[in-house]
């Protein structure tokens, strides 16, 4: 039975090692999303280019005091 314990232990260690890298990558993407919104890139395009949903992008915009896009037709990027 120790074989299954060894596999589980190794998988846990691998998960813990990669967790920090994943969190750092997520923080980098969040910063890039915020920068893109501040640069005037529309939320739909930001959603298309990022791993995040439109709802999460709106949440990030609110958290970073980025005003919503004005209503009406949007110009092509």
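^ structure tokens above, recovered residues below v
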């Amino acid at each position: 039975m120790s074989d299954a314990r060894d596999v589980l232990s190794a998988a846990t260690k691998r998960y813990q090692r990669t967790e920090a890298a994943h969190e750092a990558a997520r923080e980098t993407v969040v910063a890039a999303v915020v920068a893109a919104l501040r640069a005037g890139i529309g939320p739909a395009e930001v959603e298309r280019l990022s791993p995040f949903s439109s709802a999460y992008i709106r949440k990030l915009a609110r958290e970073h005091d980025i005003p919503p896009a004005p209503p009406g037709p949007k110009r092509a990027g």
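The mean pLDDT is 91.
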